[in-house]
């Protein structure tokens, strides 16, 4: 299975290596660097590479490459999924997954990696189990530790690994018992030049923050579970109960976790919250171009659209942009050719508009295709698919928990072709 | 303190301060020297001192910095002696860090590493399971060959540990030891064999991993654990699931026959799978394929894992279905795979690769999701190309126009590599779908005027290929390309144009020589590939039009003769000899025309994923399209399934000889094997209370042991004695075992009168003693065993038939039938879901902690409607007649409606027009009308469906049936039984619900039954003919239970019938709707009274 792990920053420096079997020289990464060079964009590096003696499987997360070395046949997704789990764990422990944070906490990182894999086979990947063994750093503890010589390795040995429900530790106690659920839906859409929707999908996720004492057994039911025909669950959800009754029944992990994700495919009708009127044109003669974008509300279910943002990857020939925005402000990054228009709240009475001219490089043929617009937006208190949680019941414990559900709709990969 | 500067690790400065205070004068001098010599060597000296100090915090600090060094890939091996001393430290964190160090450097410092071994050996005996486990983990990770025997011993001990966590660790250690010393294989296999029997979900994944690494070919070890693994699968941790699923895929390919029968025959048999009638498999070709129940078990138990959050698990299940499931079931994985596309970029890449392979063979699977493969400009290039590949694979006549419109957008993409790939994709679509070839070709020709060179070049290359497949008149396109020739600079494109000119020079007789003339001018400046094609063109023109081009050709050949490139010189020489007639080559030049201008087969435009299906999906090899080290070929289905009884799990396995593989390997150590098995059973007994989900295999074992208790004393002695004695008598005990089992079954159902049945069977067959007699006889003389062995299965089969009249038994392998009980349906005509949901429910109950409310599932009735009622007679209806019946399907329009099908027939001599439903009464009546029928020809009839909400009353629904001219008042009066929907529930639920509906809600009557109705089938038939209810599987033979819900208000209706001794029976109906109860009671009474 997984033989070694190298963590590489965007400059190509290997700043962390870990071997679970005998040591493999870091020169193996040269093959990777070669591929990295060829790909130009780090996103384009093929995730699976072959070298004369090894196979390299890598992921790119937060400007870091996690590169694992494999010697024999293994399902590539197995490795990829694990590497992402490693990155998630770092994120969970340190708040972010970046070079500086990993270098600062190298000991904890090493201890984590040691526990997560044994001989290349995943051992403990559940965040709750790991946190019992290795405590996440915080300022207070590091101060206390330096004074008392204490450590961040748990004194008690983890019990979670042994139980039937490895995701929850025993003996959890809170003074305020609360359970919050965030239903977040992202719209992935491709909208045509003429404004017709080419494809639209909804990717939904229910994130939970559960701080309940003891061993609560929760049941969540929906007003319209029929919407959910393609779902994936946290292991805690009893699948058979879902199959028969369409309710989520589970003993929650302690703290933050993703309860379920669901996918509403393009076969269903998906509401598109905004429409975009745009015209981008480039003129051969004056080596300039014109841009005019207007955004208006379409199907917002009476809610306001917030955090509206338009991002355009301009063609290479565009040197500068001289625009006026009726609302919000725009920036144009000359080096990355990225035009970002930050609008903010969408006012249906006065539609935001961005117009002006683009100056082009002379002597270069005009780009054939107009750049597509990527839209970011957020609508509070609305799940665009219409999903609603009808009730949440708790069994197994006596106290009354505080419960809350929040809905947010965001734009995922929302693209307008021009 | 200036020394602090040289430390770059956190807390380094502090440590140095402390070190300075603590250390002896010599050390402070080294500390002072630090600023000057900041070499690694010095730094490590410092660390050494810290490690040797007495202060725990200092040691910890030092270890942390050492780990930092290791992480950066710097060497810290010279500190080994200082570090290894701390291996026995009390501080857990320090100890862990020392372990990290030890595992990293032990290989280099083997002798010193040995110092630590005794610590681990001691820790292996620690009462705390975690300390034992971690000691084993580190001990096995130290790659020092000398300690192999110690490791072996430790693994063996740990494999028998009480803690499943330690056993899991030992499974991991097996792989480590194997990679250190492959000679230990045999011993390790023994441990694996033992661990495979483990019932803990914690162990299962790890041991299968060890199995895959050490002895993947020992498939025989799996047989006995197959069902257990299938049943445990859902509860195993996610990484283990992946490994187990891929192992089981391979296993299933060797053990079951192919479910992919030939086309038409296969479709006919669909009903067989659905009805779950898992009969005994027959090997003859003519017989329809019936899936092995174990095969079905695997498919059924992996399906829920498609909902896993772990993408690797989903992919593993998808490939399992792809490789094992009947073709029509594979498509259930589609949705989940499409869901994965929203995941990380890397996951997308792998999933798309697999979908690309799948979509070549099975377009239909992904076609509904075609929009999910549309490309976004933000996708990475390799994702884009893969999506393109899939879109091309999915293209067919119906969707090609949408796909081409998409492609048009892609062609304009700024990502030129992707645009070029799109053009190739268009080319492929054009060749695959003949309808659009011309459209594509025209589109590509338009692209020729594109400003981008790569796009133009790619278009030319693709057009060239397309023209080749379409050797009709395309002179225009060739002319157009000739015109473009001057502007095209990409060599490949130029070469392609030249080749086209040459190939079709007769179609463009005027242009081709001109092109050649231009080429003659620029020949020396061209790329090699263009030069070669120029030579080619010259030769072809010379053959067809030598008058005009003779001189040009000679000129070009001369230029080529002195070219720098030897390929071109060679080609020139060859062509010259071929086409220019001279004395030497007379014979060949005659055929020059046929050689050069032979009709050439068109190049196939095929998917790059065409040949990837030779690799198992989801594997590394598939992803790389080459065989990775350690890849195991997925075996092809066996023509004839190996004996399936090998998977039967019993305390003593019956007839082991029939399993050749097992027999070979296990015979010598069978004694041990059995004693193990006995232990296993005991262990399991204690386990079962602890672990929540109990699987069917273990329950069958339990029932085995139960039967042992139930049976008479001497037979118990027999089995227990023989278990320990020689294998000969074991066999006999196995038979007595199965006999006991049989008896147990008959005990459960007292009506079946086991003894007489057994007797009559033995009479019929003329076979020796059965039952008790056989077991005792075989006990006394183990010699007689060979006889009884061959005999006993037959009577057993007979009783089986008696017990379950529905299960047809027809071959000699019926031994395994005993164990098929778990999977074969109850001997009733109850719908399949009832059986399924029952098992699901029981599983569920095992899993959950809280009390779960009963599950009531509405099902469609399996009982087809028989009664048709007259709605309108053709005499009163002026030729229009109408009949209706209740299809007993859930109504499509509204759940509270009853579905009614009306058959309208025109028996008049003229066409009836505009048949529709007019006024309704009562007005509140909610009817979903059928759409107006515009015209009904004379003699024709049409079936329409309507929905009527009767609100759970038998009040007739009156409405008018109108034609263009007339209106007829009609009414539908539903029978009370039609206001119900069949539902399924378990027996316990039934009793529970019945308990709630007592008193007012209960109506009962003693009825007399016509004798013909006394059998269970007859009862079912009668009840189902009256009311749309579902049968509840019943364990008591004299009880029949049925459950339903009213359509409108969803009130439960429970019908139970208890047969008494005489021809009488007690019929009870429980429901809130007391009016309905009495009416239903009346109806049922009538039905039973009829003969």
Automatic annotation (TrEMBL), chain A:
Pfam family, one: Adap_comp_sub
Transmembrane regions: none
An individual GO BP term: intracellular protein transport
InterPro entries linked: Adaptor_comp_med_subunit, AP2_Mu_C_sf, AP_mu_sigma_su, Clathrin_mu, Clathrin_mu_CS, Longin-like_dom_sf, MHD
Topological category with respect to the lipid bilayer: Peripheral membrane protein
Localization per record: Golgi apparatus; Cytoplasmic vesicle membrane
UniProt keyword list: Cytoplasmic vesicle, Golgi apparatus, Membrane, Protein transport, Transport
All residue ranges annotated as the MHD domain in the record: 176-417
UniProt xrefs under Gene3D superfamilies: 3.30.450.60, Mu homology domain, subdomain B (2.60.40.1170)
Keyword check for Protein transport: yes
Gene Ontology CC terms: clathrin adaptor complex; cytoplasmic vesicle membrane; Golgi apparatus
Family: Belongs to the adaptor complexes medium subunit family.
Record-linked PANTHER family: AP COMPLEX SUBUNIT MU
Function: Part of the AP-3 complex, an adaptor-related complex which is not clathrin-associated. The complex is associated with the Golgi region as well as more peripheral structures. It facilitates the budding of vesicles from the Golgi membrane and may be directly involved in trafficking to lysosomes.
Name used for this protein in its record: AP-3 complex subunit mu-1
Organism: Pundamilia nyererei
Classification of source organism: Eukaryota, Metazoa, Chordata, Craniata, Vertebrata
Designated gene of the protein: LOC102192900
From TrEMBL, chain B:
TM regions (residue ranges): none
Biased composition (Basic residues): 741-755
Membrane-protein topology: Peripheral membrane protein
Domain AP-3 complex subunit beta C-terminal: 810-955
One GO CC annotation: clathrin-coated vesicle membrane
Domain Beta-adaptin appendage C-terminal subdomain: 979-1089
InterPro entries from the UniProt entry: AP3_beta, AP3B1/2_C, AP3B_C, AP_beta, ARM-like, ARM-type_fold, B-adaptin_app_sub_C, Clathrin/coatomer_adapt-like_N
Subcellular location: Cytoplasmic vesicle, Clathrin-coated vesicle membrane; Golgi apparatus
Superkingdom, taxonomy of origin: Eukaryota
The keyword Protein biosynthesis belongs to this UniProt entry's keyword annotation: no
Compositional bias (Low complexity): 10-22, 687-702, 720-731
Any Pfam family hit: AP3B1_C_2
Gene3D superfamilies: Leucine-rich Repeat Variant
GO aspect biological process, one term: vesicle-mediated transport
Positions with biased composition (Acidic residues): 676-686, 703-713
Keyword check for Transferase: no
Keywords per UniProt: Cytoplasmic vesicle, Golgi apparatus, Membrane, Phosphoprotein, Protein transport, Transport
Positions of the UniProt region annotated as Disordered: 1-31, 660-810
PANTHER family the record matches: ADAPTOR COMPLEX SUBUNIT BETA FAMILY MEMBER
Function: Subunit of non-clathrin- and clathrin-associated adaptor protein complex 3 (AP-3) that plays a role in protein sorting in the late-Golgi/trans-Golgi network (TGN) and/or endosomes. The AP complexes mediate both the recruitment of clathrin to membranes and the recognition of sorting signals within the cytosolic tails of transmembrane cargo molecules. AP-3 appears to be involved in the sorting of a subset of transmembrane proteins targeted to lysosomes and lysosome-related organelles.
Protein family: Belongs to the adaptor complexes large subunit family.
Protein name as annotated: AP-3 complex subunit beta
Organism: Pundamilia nyererei
């Amino acid at each position: 299975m997984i033989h070694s792990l190298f963590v590489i920053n965007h400059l190509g420096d290997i700043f962390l290596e870990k071997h679970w079997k005998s040591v493999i020289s870091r020169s193996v990464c040269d093959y990777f660097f070669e591929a990295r060079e060829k790909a130009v964009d780090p996103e384009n590096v093929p995730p699976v590479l072959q070298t004369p003696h090894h196979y390299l499987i890598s992921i790119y997360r937060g400007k870091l490459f996690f590169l694992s070395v494999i010697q024999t046949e293994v399902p590539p997704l197995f490795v990829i999924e694990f590497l992402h789990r490693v990155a998630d764990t770092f994120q969970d422990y340190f708040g972010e997954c970046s070079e500086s944070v990993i270098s600062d906490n190298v000991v904890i990182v090493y201890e984590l990696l040691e526990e997560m894999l044994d001989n290349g086979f995943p051992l403990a990947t559940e965040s709750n189990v790991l946190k019992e063994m290795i405590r996440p750093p915080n300022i207070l503890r590091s101060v206390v530790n330096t004074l008392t010589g204490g450590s961040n390795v748990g004194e008690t040995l983890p019990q979670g690994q042994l139980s039937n429900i490895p995701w929850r530790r025993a003996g959890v106690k809170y003074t305020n018992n609360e359970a919050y659920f965030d239903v977040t839906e992202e719209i992935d859409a491709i909208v045509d030049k003429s404004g017709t929707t080419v494809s639209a999908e909804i990717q939904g996720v229910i994130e939970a923050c559960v701080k309940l004492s003891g061993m609560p057994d929760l049941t969540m039911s929906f007003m319209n579970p029929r919407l959910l025909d393609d779902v994936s669950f946290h292991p805690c959800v009893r699948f058979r109960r879902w199959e028969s009754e369409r309710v989520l029944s589970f003993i929650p992990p302690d703290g933050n976790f993703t309860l379920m994700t669901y996918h509403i495919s393009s076969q269903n009708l998906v509401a598109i919250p905004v429409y975009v009127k745009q015209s981008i044109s480039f003129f051969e003669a004056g080596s300039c171009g014109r841009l005019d974008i207007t955004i208006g509300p379409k199907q917002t279910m009476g809610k306001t659209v917030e955090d509206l943002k338009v991002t355009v990857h301009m063609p290479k020939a565009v040197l500068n942009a001289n625009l006026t925005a009726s609302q919000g402000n725009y920036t144009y990054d000359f080096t990355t050719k990225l035009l970002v228009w930050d609008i903010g709240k969408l006012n249906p009475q006065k539609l935001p508009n961005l117009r002006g001219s683009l100056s082009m490089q002379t002597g270069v043929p005009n780009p054939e295709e107009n750049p597509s617009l990527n839209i970011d937006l957020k609508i509070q208190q609305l799940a665009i698919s219409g999903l609603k949680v009808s009730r949440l019941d708790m069994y197994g414990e006596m106290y009354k928990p505080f419960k809350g559900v929040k809905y947010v709709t965001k734009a995922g990969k929302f693209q307008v072709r021009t | 303190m200036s020394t602090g500067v040289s430390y770059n690790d956190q807390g380094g400065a502090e440590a140095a301060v402390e070190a300075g205070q603590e250390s002896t004068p010599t050390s402070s001098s080294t500390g002072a020297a630090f600023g000057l010599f900041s070499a690694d060597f010095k730094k490590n000296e410092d660390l050494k001192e810290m490690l040797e100090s007495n202060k725990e915090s200092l040691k910890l600090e030092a270890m942390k910095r050492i780990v930092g060094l290791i992480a950066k890939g710097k060497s810290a091996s010279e500190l080994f002696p200082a570090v290894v001393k701390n291996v026995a430290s009390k501080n857990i964190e320090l100890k862990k860090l020392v372990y990290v160090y030890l595992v990293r450097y032990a290989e280099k410092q083997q002798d010193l590493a040995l110092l630590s071994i005794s610590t681990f050996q001691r820790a292996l005996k620690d009462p705390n399971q975690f300390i034992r486990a971690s000691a084993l983990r580190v001990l096995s990770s130290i790659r020092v060959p000398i300690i192999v025997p110690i490791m072996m011993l430790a693994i063996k001990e740990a494999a028998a540990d009480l803690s499943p966590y330690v056993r899991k660790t030992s499974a991991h250690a097996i792989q480590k030891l194997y990679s250190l010393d492959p000679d230990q294989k045999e011993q390790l296999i023994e441990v694996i064999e033992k661990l495979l029997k483990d019932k803990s979900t914690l162990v299962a994944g790890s041991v299968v991993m060890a199995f895959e690494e050490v002895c993947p070919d020992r498939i025989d070890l799996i047989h006995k654990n197959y069902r257990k693994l299938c049943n445990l699968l859902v509860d195993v941790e996610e990484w283990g699931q992946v490994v187990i699923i891929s192992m089981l895929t391979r296993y299933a390919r060797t053990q079951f026959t192919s479910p992919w029968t030939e086309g038409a025959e296969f479709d006919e048999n669909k009903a067989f799978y659905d009805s779950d009638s898992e009969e005994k498999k027959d090997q003859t070709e003519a017989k329809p394929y019936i899936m092995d129940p174990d095969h079905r078990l695997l498919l059924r138990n992996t399906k829920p894992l498609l909902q896993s959050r772990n993408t690797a698990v989903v992919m593993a299940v998808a490939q399992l279905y792809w490789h094992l499931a009947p073709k029509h079931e594979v498509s259930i994985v589609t949705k989940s795979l499409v869901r994965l596309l929203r995941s990380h970029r890397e996951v997308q890449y792998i999933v798309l690769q697999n979908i690309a392979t799948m979509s070549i063979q099975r377009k239909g699977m992904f076609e509904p999701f075609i929009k999910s493969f549309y490309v976004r400009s933000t996708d990475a290039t390799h994702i884009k190309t893969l999506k393109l590949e899939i879109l091309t694979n999915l293209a067919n006549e119906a969707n090609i126009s949408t796909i081409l419109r998409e492609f048009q957008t892609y062609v304009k993409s700024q990502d030129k590599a992707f645009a070029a790939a799109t053009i190739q994709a268009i080319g492929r679509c054009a060749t695959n779908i003949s309808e659009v070839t011309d459209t594509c070709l025209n589109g590509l020709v338009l692209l020729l005027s594109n400003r981008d060179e790569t796009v133009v070049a790619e278009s030319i290359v693709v057009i060239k290929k397309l023209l080749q497949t379409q050797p009709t008149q395309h002179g225009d396109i060739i002319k157009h390309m000739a015109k473009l020739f001057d502007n095209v600079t990409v060599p490949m494109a130029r070469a392609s144009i030249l080749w086209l000119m040459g190939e079709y020079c007769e179609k463009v007789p005027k242009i081709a020589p001109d092109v050649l003339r231009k080429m003659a001018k620029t020949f020396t400046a061209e790329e090699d590939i263009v030069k070669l094609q120029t030579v080619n063109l010259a030769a072809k023109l010379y053959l067809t039009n030598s008058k005009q081009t003779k001189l040009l050709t000679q000129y070009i050949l001369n230029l080529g003769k002195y070219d720098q490139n030897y390929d071109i010189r060679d080609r020139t020489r060859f062509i010259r000899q071929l086409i220019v007639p001279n004395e030497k080559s007379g014979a060949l030049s005659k055929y020059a025309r046929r050689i050069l201008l032979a009709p050439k087969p068109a190049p196939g435009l095929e998917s790059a994923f065409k040949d990837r299906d030779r690799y198992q999906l989801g594997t590394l090899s598939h992803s790389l399209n080459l065989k990775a080290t350690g890849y195991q070929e997925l075996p092809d289905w066996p023509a004839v399934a190996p004996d399936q009884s090998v998977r039967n799990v019993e305390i003593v396995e019956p007839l082991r000889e029939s399993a050749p593989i097992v027999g070979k390997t296990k015979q010598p150590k069978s004694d041990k094997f059995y004693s193990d098995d006995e232990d296993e059973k005991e262990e399991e007994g204690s386990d079962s209370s602890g672990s929540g989900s109990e699987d069917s295999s273990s329950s069958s074992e339990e029932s085995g042991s139960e039967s042992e208790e139930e049976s008479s004393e001497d037979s118990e002695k027999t089995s227990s004695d023989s278990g320990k004695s020689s294998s000969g008598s074991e066999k006999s005990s196995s038979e007595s075992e199965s006999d006991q089992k049989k008896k147990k079954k008959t005990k459960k159902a007292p009506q079946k009168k086991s003894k007489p049945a057994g007797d009559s069977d033995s009479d019929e067959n003329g076979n020796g003693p059965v039952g008790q007699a056989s077991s005792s006889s075989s006990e006394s003389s183990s010699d007689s065993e060979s006889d009884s062995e061959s005999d006993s299965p037959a009577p057993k089969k007979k009783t089986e038939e008696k017990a379950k009249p529905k299960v047809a038994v027809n071959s000699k392998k019926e031994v395994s039938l005993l164990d098929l009980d778990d999977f074969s349906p109850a001997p009733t005509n109850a719908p399949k879901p009832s059986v399924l949901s029952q098992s699901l429910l029981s599983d569920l109950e095992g899993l959950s902690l809280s009390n779960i409310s009963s599950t009531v599932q509405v099902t469609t009735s399996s009982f087809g409607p028989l009664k048709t009622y007259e709605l309108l007679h053709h005499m009163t209806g002026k030729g229009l007649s109408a009949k209706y019946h209740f299809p007993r399907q859930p109504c499509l329009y509204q759940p509270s409606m009853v579905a009614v099908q009306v058959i309208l027939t025109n028996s008049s001599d003229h066409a009836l027009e505009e048949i529709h439903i007019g006024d309704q009464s009562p007005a509140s009546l909610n009817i979903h009308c059928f759409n107006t029928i515009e015209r009904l020809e004379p003699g024709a009839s049409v079936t329409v469906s309507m929905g009527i909400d009767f609100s759970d009353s038998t009040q007739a629904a009156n409405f008018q049936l109108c034609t263009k001219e007339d209106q007829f008042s009609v009414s539908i009066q539903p029978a009370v039984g039609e206001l119900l929907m069949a539902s399924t529930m378990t027996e316990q639920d039934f009793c529970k619900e019945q308990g709630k509906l007592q008193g007012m809600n209960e109506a009962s009557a003693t009825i007399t039954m016509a004798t013909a109705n006394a059998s269970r089938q007859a009862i079912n038939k009668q009840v189902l003919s009256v009311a749309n209810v579902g049968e509840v599987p019943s364990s008591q033979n004299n009880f029949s239970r049925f459950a339903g819900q009213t359509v409108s208000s969803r009130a439960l209706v429970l019908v139970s019938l208890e047969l008494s001794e005489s021809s009488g029976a007690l019929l009870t109906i429980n429901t809130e709707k007391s009016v309905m109860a009495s009416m239903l009671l009346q109806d049922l009474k009538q039905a039973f009274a009829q003969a």
